[in-house]
Amino acid sequence: MDTELARTFLAVVTAGNFVNAADRLHVTQSTVSARIHTLENALGCTLFVRNKGGTTLTAAGRHFQKHASTLVRTVEQARHDVGVAKGFRAALTIGGRFGLWEQFLTKWLPVLLRNAPDISVRAEIGLESDLMQGLVEGRLDIAVMYTPESRPGLKVELLFDERLVLVSTDPGRQPEPGPGYVYVDWGPEFFARHSASFPDFFGSALTANIGWLGLQHVLENGGSGYFPIRLVRPHLQSGKLTVLSAAPEFALSAYVVYPTDAAPDVVGPALDVIRHGATMESRSAQ
C-alpha cells in the first residue's frame, strides 16, 4: 500500500476534518478527498463519516488506524535505520515546543549525547499539532509539548508544571492586561483561566503563538505578558523585567509523549535524561 495514503488517513484523524488535514499536508482538499477515496476503494470499506462538524471514524476506520500507524512507522523506522550515520548504532528524533527547547531541552541535550554516544540525535521544533502528527507517523521518536492529544499507541507522561507569571518592563504597571500587553497563546486551558481572571479583556494589539516571539517584543519595545518563570528568570535577575506579583499566576503542564512500543535501548536513555531534567526544573521552581 502507498504510505502516502496511510499518511493522509492519519492526518485526517489528527486534524479532525479534510480541510485542516489538507493544510497540514500542504495539498488541496480535493487531493485529500481523492486519496481517502482511493484508500477506501482499496480496502473495500468506508473509513470516515463526513458531517458538518468534521469527520469521525467508522468501526472499520478505527481498526485500520493502528495498521496505518504501524505501516507508516515501519517505513520511517526503516528510513532511520538505513540513514543512521556511520559510527552510530541508532538514530533518535526529538521534537519539542520552542519554549521547551529554550532553557530546558537545550540544557539536557549535551547530557544525552554524552550518556549515549552511540546514538545520533535529530532535534526538531514544532507546535503541538505538528509534533503529534510526527509521532503518529513515526517521524518523531519523542516529543515534549504542553497540550498533547490522546492517541492509540502513544504514552503521555507529565514532566513538570510551568509557572506562568505576568512580567513587565514597567514595575509600576497595573497587575492586569493593558497597553503594550502581549497575549501569548499558551493553549486552551490558559485561555479559559485567563478569561476567567480578566473578564474585561477582549484582546491585545499583538498575539503570539510562540512565547519567544512575545518575549522578544516585550524586551525590545516594552510592555507586559505572561511567560514561564523559567524563561524570564535571567531577565528578572538583570532588572529588564519585573514580576507583577499582585497578578494571578497560571500553571502550564509540560508533557513528554512517545510510542508505547518504542525501543527501550534507543528511547530509554533520552527519556531518562528528560525525566531527570524535569525533576531538576521542578525543584528550581519551588
Which descriptors apply to this entry?
single chain; alpha/beta; Arc Repressor Mutant, subunit A; 2 domains; nine-stranded mixed beta sheet; 10 helices; 11 strands; 23% strand
Tell me about this structure.
This protein folds into two domains: 3-80, Winged helix-like DNA-binding domain superfamily/Winged helix DNA-binding domain (Arc Repressor Mutant, subunit A, Orthogonal Bundle); 89-286, 3-Layer(aba) Sandwich (D-Maltodextrin-Binding Protein, domain 2). The chain is α/β, with parallel strands linked by helices and 286 residues long. α1 (3-15) packs across α4. It contains ten helices and eleven strands. The chain is globular and about 65 Å long. The chain is 49% helix and 23% strand. The mean pLDDT is 90. The N and C termini lie far apart (52 Å).
Short description:
By secondary structure, the chain is α/β, with parallel strands linked by helices. The protein has helices at 3-15, 18-25, 29-43, 59-82, 98-115, 128-137, 188-197, 211-221, 229-238, 264-285; strands at residues 48-51, 54-57, 90-96, 119-125, 142-145, 154-168, 181-184, 206-208, 224-228, 242-243, 250-259. Strand 7 (181-184), helix 7 and strand 8 form a beta-alpha-beta unit.
